[in-house]
Amino acid sequence: MLGLAMNGVESYYDERALEYDTVFEALFFRIYDFVTWKHIEPYLPRFPGARVLDAAGGTGRWSIRMARAGCNVTLLDVSEEMLNVAREKVKKESLEHLISIEKGDIRKLDYEDETFDMALCEHAVFLLERPEEAIKEFKRVLKNVGVLIVSAQNRYVHTICQLPCDESLSSDKLEKVLSTLLRKRYNVMDRERKVRIHTLTPGEFRSLLEGNGFKVIKMIGKGITMPIRVSNKISMRREYPEELFEKLLQLELNICEEPDSLALAGHMQAIANKL
Q1: Backbone dihedral region of 16: left (phi > 0), alpha (psi from -120 to 50 degrees) or beta?
Q2: Which of 24, 88, 147, 213 is placed for a possible disulfide with 29 were both Cys, Cβ 3.0 to 4.6 Å?
Q3: What is the pTM of this model?
Q4: Which residue stretches of the chain are H helix?
């Protein structure tokens, strides 16, 4: 069952691997990446021989940044095509000595206990119907007091964003949205219905970590201004005034670390220590 459940995910990303990185040219993801890295970099292990696991690392966006900072990184992903893109990027950056690339499933890691000093799982937990399987594996392969940085999609915002903001709003559509919220069900990512989005509330996200052997140090929100107030039409633009980016970024940075703003964030990022 473990392998069968990931077949759709693997094929989904295999098919999109060559174009995958282009989405990060959008305004939303430029801001998202800035906030993400700001809350990764301070926790990178800086001592000789330290090892970092980039779990579900895809095309190596974060592996390359962490390697540039001096980390020895293991990039793991289920999609061979995504890893092929990563191999080309790593070679181009001449970082082969710092980044090893391996295919695998984050729910069943093929590493010994206490192998890594830090694990990063960015933008992948939403793929898992039972995310605790991956969290338990991260605990197992992390050394004592090792750092886990992991993100999840917020059910509150994901649900609210399904509400029509025009005359098409109806009781039937409201019932569907309410059902998604209350039944804690997935939402379809694309028309082919290949990948399901599994969401968490902020409280569920914290409980997921604390119930599986981690102490949460910090939780931040990402995508607070978008998409609730800034539409996709604007946030997904690839050409925009630099001033627009700077002002939106300042809004995000001034809100993202406030605990009472977490429920407004489309994505949540947690930094936690293994107990």
Answers
A1: alpha
A2: 24
A3: 0.92
A4: 2-20, 27-38, 61-68, 80-92, 132-141, 155-160, 171-183, 202-210, 232-235, 242-255
In this structure, are residues 27 and 237 in contact, taking their beta carbons and an 8 Å threshold? yes
Cα dihedral across residues 91, 84, 123, 209: positive or negative: negative
Cα–Cα distance for residue pair 71/90, rounded to 1 Å: 14
Residue 33 tokens, joined: 């990446």
pLDDT one-digit tens code per residue, 66-122: 999 999 999 999 999 999 999 999 999 999 999 999 999 999 999 999 999 999 999
CA distance 167 to 17: 37
User: What phi and psi values does residue 216 have, to the nearest 5 degrees?
Assistant: -75, 125
Residue 103 β-bridge partners: 77
Report how far residue 111's alpha carbon sits from residue 88's, in angstroms, rounded to the nearest whole number: 25
Amino acid at 134: A
Average pLDDT of span 139-150:
97
Query: Which CATH architecture is the domain 2-274 placed in?
Result: 3-Layer(aba) Sandwich (3.40)
Q: What's the rounded Cα separation, in Å, for the pair 40 and 22?
A: 22
Read off the tokens for 222.
Answer: 């990402």
Least Cα distance to 25 among 247, 238, 234, 240 occurs for 238
253: exposed, middle or buried (C-beta count within 10 Å: 0-12, 13-18, 19+)? middle
Hey, how many other C-beta atoms are within 10 angstroms of the C-beta on 226? Answer: 25
48: amino acid identity, one letter: P
The residue count for the chain: 275
Q: What are the extents of the domains in the chain?
A: 2-274
Residue 1 has pLDDT above 50, yes or no: no
Rounded to an integer, the average pLDDT of 249-264 is: 94
